[in-house]
Amino acid sequence: MKSPLKPPFNPTAKTPTVTERPSFPVRLKPDTGVPSATKLVAASAYPERAVAINSLRNALPASAPGGVGPDSQALRARMLQKLAAQGVSDDHVLAAMGAVERHRFVDTALVNQAYEDTSLPIGLGQTISKPNVVARMLELLRQGCTGKLGRVLEIGTGCGYQAAVLSHLATEVYSIERLRGLHDKARENLRPLRLPNVHLLFGDGMIGFPKGAPYAAIIAAAGGEAIPAAWIEQLAVGGRLVAPLQTSNGAQALVLIEKTRLGVKQTLLEAVHFVPLKSGTS
Ligand code: SAH
Fold this sequence. Notes:
- By secondary structure, the protein is of the alpha/beta class.
- Helix content is 24%, strand content 24%.
- The strands form three sheets. Strands 1-6-5-4-7-9-10-11 form an eight-stranded mixed sheet. Strands 2-3 form a two-stranded antiparallel sheet.
């Protein structure tokens, strides 16, 4: 079987450039709108905290006019309850997902499905992952981390939803997209949120973003035949990488890579269905 860590890193290879645009100019107070994590624990897992999760409706940010309305708070609270019932137990992840209005990242026609556990089209043949998969990957990234992650690299900005969630979990988020149309769309979607720690990059994420390295965590929303060597290079010692990876039978599985002083440990996890990781830009 092909080693997932191939092809080997070639320092002499010509590397295409990644362009960084300035991040959003306005700074907000840290943790704006993030509800207390302890309120978000599943009622099913902790019946004694059932009352607390209901108070989430008040803790979530109010919807601005033009969204699905104030009801989106209730929809998000329900989405979180479902996630927790499905086994998502990291309060920080639940709080971050409760703080981001997913319906603002999908087309108007799909707004009603924004809080269902389903992947949705975001244009140019790409999809936003279903909430359960986003939560699972973020939990894997955060395992063993008690506070915020440091710098995080995301490959595949798409509509920008996961980058927004990550902005609550990491000190800095570098997110790369190879399709100009989606890079621009994410910029538009994220602008009103004014997240000063999210840096959107247009380029080929297969080469990572060396300027921001080393990363405490790397997350990919597109799956290839191998984990690019550049990602491993740019991962900090003690860092974690989560990505979909094509398996020998042509299916995809989630892979967790942990970089330690002793080496790189790779764990293959459950089957997933992500869009393909492609090289170059378009
Ligand atoms: N996290 C995204 C999901 C995007 S889907 C969200 O919340 O919306 C995966 C994205 O990966 C697609 O937009 C696709 O264009 C992008 N992609 C695929 N290969 C890539 C590469 N080499 N570099 C950067 N982005 C890539």
